[in-house]
Design brief:
With about 190 residues, this protein is an alpha/beta fold. A 7-stranded mixed β-sheet has the order 2-1-3-4-12-11-10. Strands 5-6-9 form a 3-stranded mixed β-sheet. A two-stranded antiparallel ribbon has the order 7-8.
Length: about 190
C-alpha cells in the first residue's frame, strides 16, 4: 500500500514517518502524475491559502478532485482540513471543496494558544494525543458526515465515506493510531474495488 503526502508545505516527513510506522509505504507527492501510483493521499497542515495557491499553480486541484471522485481516500490535517472543505467561513473561496463541511480558520487562536490534549476518537481503541496549532474548527457538517471526535463540544475529527479530516496534527506525536485508521480506510477501499 502506497500512501502519498502532498509535499507543497507542512510536516511532510513527519506524516511519512507515521505512515511507515503502520507498515505502509509513504511517498512525498510533488507532481500530480504521482497520484496515479498511490492508494490514498494526506494533505498536511501549513497555511491553507498558500497550499491552495500552490495546488492551483502546480495543477493539483483538478487532479485531487479526480482522485477523490474515484473514491480514493483523502486525509486532511489542520490546514488540509480547510483545503478539503466545501465552505470556509468568512467568505474565502473553497479550494478542493470535496467534503461536506464548513470550517472556521484559526478558530483556536494564534500560535501561542497552541495546546495538546488526549482525545477520544470514534474507531480508535485508546485516546489519541492531539496537538492543536492555530487549529481550524468544523462549524457545520452535512448529513453524510460522521463526527469522530469533539473538543469542548466543537468538532475536531470527522469522516465522510473515503474522506477523513482532523483539526489537529496527528503526525507530531509518536501515536500513529489515526494514520493506522486511515490506512485501514485505504485497505477497505482497495478490497471493495476488486
Amino acid at each position: 500500500m502506497k500512501v502519498g503526502v502532498l509535499a507543497l508545505q507542512g510536516a511532510v516527513a513527519e506524516h511519512i514517518r507515521s505512515i511507515e510506522s503502520t507498515g505502509a509505504e509513504g511517498v512525498a507527492v510533488k507532481q500530480p502524475k504521482q497520484l496515479l501510483d498511490i492508494d490514498g493521499l494526506i494533505i498536511p497542515g501549513g497555511e491553507s491559502t498558500t497550499i491552495g495557491k500552490l495546488m492551483r499553480k502546480y495543477g493539483f486541484i483538478e487532479a485531487i478532485q479526480q482522485f477523490s471522485s474515484e473514491g480514493k481516500p483523502l486525509f486532511g490535517t489542520c490546514a488540509g482540513l480547510i483545503v478539503m472543505a466545501k465552505k470556509i467561513d468568512g467568505g474565502e473561496e473553497p479550494h478542493l471543496g470535496v467534503m461536506d463541511i464548513s470550517v472556521s480558520r484559526n478558530a483556536f487562536g494564534r500560535q501561542r494558544e497552541s495546546f495538546e490534549t488526549d482525545l477520544e476518537v470514534k474507531g480508535l481503541e485508546e485516546p489519541l494525543r492531539a496537538v492543536f496549532i492555530r487549529a481550524p474548527l468544523i462549524t457545520e457538517v452535512g448529513e453524510s458526515v460522521e463526527v469522530l471526535s469533539t473538543y469542548n463540544d466543537e468538532i475536531v475529527t470527522a469522516r465522510q465515506g473515503h474522506l477523513l479530516v482532523s483539526s489537529f496534527h496527528p503526525e507530531l506525536t509518536d501515536d500513529a493510531s489515526l494514520h493506522k485508521y486511515f490506512t485501514e480506510m485505504i485497505q477497505a477501499n482497495k478490497t471493495a474495488a476488486k
